[in-house]
Design a protein that fits this description.
elongated, mainly alpha, single chain, about 140 residues
Length: about 140
C-alpha cells in the first residue's frame, strides 16, 4: 500500500478573475445610475409620506419661522441665522391661515394654531429686541443721539 502524497496541491481557479471583473462593472454601473438619478430628480423619500393635514401645515410653517429666527439650524447649512423679514413672512402667513379658516376648524386645531401664533409672535419680539440691542450699544459708543 502506497502512502498518499503529503504534498499539497494548489488548484488555480482562473474563473475568479472574471467574476471580480464582472462585480466591478456591476458596481460601476450602479454608481453611475445612482449619479444620474441624483441629477435627474433628487432623492426618493425614505418611505411613504403621511397624509396631509392641518397640523402638519401649521407645524411646517412654524418650523420655517423658527429657522428664520435663528432658533433652529438651517437644514442646508447646519448653522442658525436670523432673517427677520423671512420670519415675519411665515408668522404673517400663519395669521392669514388663522383668519381665513376661522369658524372652520375643530376646537383643537383652532387652539393649536392660536397657541403657535402667540408663541411665534413672542419669540419674534424677543429676537427683534435682541437684534436691536447691539445696534443701540454701537450708537451709544459712537455718541450718536
Amino acid at each position: 500500500m502506497q502512502e498518499p502524497s503529503k504534498e499539497k496541491k494548489i488548484i488555480v481557479d482562473e474563473d475568479w478573475k472574471s467574476q471580480v471583473e464582472s462585480e466591478r462593472q456591476a458596481a460601476a454601473q450602479a454608481a453611475q445610475s445612482g449619479e444620474e438619478q441624483d441629477q435627474g430628480g433628487g432623492e426618493e423619500a425614505p418611505g411613504p409620506m403621511p397624509p396631509p393635514c392641518f397640523e402638519t401645515l401649521v407645524s411646517t410653517l412654524a418650523t420655517e419661522a423658527m429657522v428664520s429666527m435663528g432658533q433652529l439650524p438651517h437644514p442646508a447649512t447646519g448653522r442658525a441665522a436670523v432673517n427677520l423679514d423671512q420670519a415675519r413672512y411665515f408668522v404673517d402667513t400663519l395669521a392669514v391661515i388663522e383668519q381665513k379658516t376661522r369658524g372652520n376648524l375643530t376646537p383643537q386645531e383652532a387652539q393649536g394654531l392660536e397657541s403657535v401664533l402667540h408663541q411665534l409672535r413672542m419669540l419674534f419680539v424677543s429676537v427683534t429686541n435682541a437684534a436691536a440691542q447691539p445696534q443701540q450699544a454701537d450708537a451709544d459708543e459712537s455718541g450718536a443721539p
